[in-house]
Amino acid sequence: MQNVQEELKATKQRRTTVKAQCTRFQTYTMDTVDIQSVSVIELQRFNPIWNEFNGIQGKIEALDNSDHDGMNPREEERSSFESKYFAIVTKLETLIEHRQRIEQPIHTLQNLHQSRESTPIMQGTISVNDSLKLPRITLPTFAGKYDEWAAFHNMFHSMIHQNASLPNVQKMQYLVSALKNEAYDVISSLDMKGEIKPVRALLDNGSQSCFITSDCCKELELKLHATCIPIYGLTQQLTRVRNSARITIQSRITRFKRAIDCLVVKKITQDLPSSVVDNACIQIPKNIQLADPQFDRPLRIDMLLEAEIFFDLLVIGTVKSIESCERKDMRTPEERSCEEYFMKIHKRNQDGKFVISLIGDSKEIANQRFKSLERRFRRDPQLQVEYSKFMHEYLAMGHMRELPEPVDNAWPHFYMPHHCVIKETSSTTKLRVIFNASSKTSTGISLNDVLMIGPVL
Question: Which Pfam families does its entry note (predicted)?
Answer without folding.
Answer: DUF1759 (PF03564)
